[in-house]
# Entry
Amino acid sequence: MTNTKKRVVIIWGWFGWIRTFYNLAWNKKFEITLIDARSTHSVKPVMPEVAYEDKVIEKTRFELRPVIEKKGHTFINEAVTKVDAKNNTLTIASWDEISYDYLVVATGAFKDFEAIKGLEEHGYSVCDETHAVKLAKKVKNFKWGKIVIGSAKSTWGTRVDAPKWWAPCEGPIGESMFMIDHLLRKKGLRDKSDIQVFTPGEPFFEDIDHTVRNAVWGLMGMKNIGLHLNKVPVEVTASSVKFEDGTELESDLTIMIPVYKGPQFLIDSKLGDEKGFIPTDKGMRHLDYPNIFAAGDVNANTMPKLGHLAAMQGDIVAAQIRKDAGEDVKVPEYKPEILCIMNMGWKEAWVLLTDIQLGGKYDVVWHGKWQGWFKRIFDEKLIIDNGKLFPEWMIHMFKKVLIMMWAGNKGNMPKETANSAK
Ligand SMILES: Cc1cc2nc3c(=O)[nH]c(=O)nc-3n(C[C@H](O)[C@H](O)[C@H](O)COP(=O)(O)OP(=O)(O)OC[C@H]3O[C@@H](n4cnc5c(N)ncnc54)[C@H](O)[C@@H]3O)c2cc1C
# Structure
C-alpha cells in the first residue's frame, strides 16, 4: 500500500514549532519530522532567572525526542545545512537528504555576538543558555561597580512590510536592569553601583506606546537607572562600551542583546531576505516557495522578536497546511501584538499587552507581586508540559481581563508613574 500521508518537515523552533506540531500531530493526514541540532530545549524567558536568581539551568530544559515520538512522529537530532527549495529536499549534517511536501522553518534568529568587537570576550547576555550560565557566574562574583545594559543595532530586510525597529526586543533589557537593581538592593550594595541603559533607537522600547513606556521609564527614574538613546555599540572592552558616535560608557559589567540575523544555511540556500530572515505573506507562506512556511523569530514579519508572535504564527502555519491538504479549516488572521511578562526580580513582574505601534489600540501594563507569581506558573508549566503553552481560549480570557482593567483605570501601574501616563 502506498503512503498517501503528506510529509511535513519542521526545522525546529520553540514557540514557532510547538504550536505547529501540536496542531498537526493528531491528524492522520500528516507524518511529521522534526529536526533540531540540539537534543533538549531551554525555555528562554527563564534565562534571566538563571543569570540573576541562581535558577539551575537543567531545570529550564526538556528532552525533545520523547515529546515527538510519543505522538508517533520522527525526531532527527542534527543540524540542517542546506535546503533545495526547487526540489523539495533538505540536507542534514550527516549528508542525508530528506524530502518534504511542506517545510516549516522555525529556527529562530542567529545571535551574532561576533558582530560587536569584544562582546564575546568582555560582555555578557541573557539571550541563550550558554550566555545566561556565563553571566550567572559573573553576577555571583560581582560585588559592586558600573553596569551597562543595552541592545546592539540589528537591521532588517526590505521584502516585507514589518516595523524596522533597531532592537529586536528590549524585554530582556528591562528584566536585566530591574533584576540587577533588585539584587544589589538586597545585598545593600546599590548605592555603590551605577546602572546605565542604552538603546540604539529612540525612544527606549520603540515597540510599545506611552502608557506602558511611561510606566517603565517612571520606574527607571525612581530606581536611579540612567538611559541613553540613539547609542549604537561598536566595541566592548574590559572597562567600557564604545559607541558609533565616538562616546563611551565606563563599565565593569556589560550585558547586551547581540545583533540578530538569519541563520547562515538559509542565506546559503537563498531562502532569506537581505538579512537572512524568511519573507512570507500574512499566511506565513514564503513569498517565492508556496510549500515553505516560517514561524517565529526567523520570519521577517515577526517584529518584535517575541514568542507570543511565534505561537500565533505556528497556529496560522498549521491551519494553512491543513487547508492546502484539502481540509475545510479557517486560517486565523495575523494580528500582531505584544504580550509578555517582564520579570523584575523577587517575585515582582510586569504584564504588558500592547498593539498600538502595530496598528491596534491597546496599551496595557499590570504590575505587582501577583504578576510575578503568574510568570513563575506560566514558565514552570512550559517546562513541565514540554513547551506546551496554555490553550488559546485561556490566553484570550486573560487578554480580555487586561483590556477591561485598562479601560477602567489604565492598568495597575506603580503610583508615581500612573500620573505621568497620558
Ligand atoms: C531572556 C528572554 C526573555 C524572553 N521573554 C519573552 C516573553 O516573556 N514573552 C515572549 O513572547 N517572548 C519572550 N522572549 C522571546 C522568545 O524567547 C523568542 O521570541 C522565541 O524563543 C522564538 O522562538 P522560535 O521558535 O522562533 O525560535 P528559538 O526559540 O530561537 O528556537 C530555535 C531552535 O532552532 C534550532 N535550530 C537553529 N538552527 C537550526 C538548524 N540549522 N538545524 C536544526 N535546528 C536548528 C535551535 O537549536 C533552537 O532549538 C524572550 C527571549 C529572551 C532571550
Observations:
- The chain is about 30% helix and 25% strand.
- The chain has two domains: 6-37+78-109+262-324, 111-260+337-418.
- Residues 108 and 297 are 5 Å apart (CA to CA).
